[in-house]
Amino acid sequence: MSCLFCKIIEGIIPSNPEYQDDRCYAFADIHPQAPVHLLIAPREHLVSLAEAGEEHPALLGHLLWVAANLARKKGLAKGYRVVVNTGEDGGQTVDHLHVHLLGGRPMTWPPG
Known about the structure:
Layout (H helix, E strand, L loop, with lengths): L3 H7 L6 E4 L3 E5 L7 E7 L14 H17 L6 E4 L15 E5 L9
Antiparallel strand pairs: 1-2, 2-3, 3-5, 4-5
């Protein structure tokens, strides 16, 4: 398997989990764009949000729930941003669906 995030999730590439369960794994981004920048990836390999099918609504909802839960645990009461980059034009750089949780500083708009 050549997927970077699959290797992280499987423990082939070391990481420090911020959260993990049977459906997803969360860890710190190696190039953080905010004081808190976590990635939440499903254990199931999905290339992107565009690949999610009719069988994935519960998983997608779970990823957002994990983001909200981590935001509470990280003390992001003043606010945070949740981002899913999809495809090359959307800024996706790893071909494994993942949710970015960013916080700890004011966010600007438009984002990029």
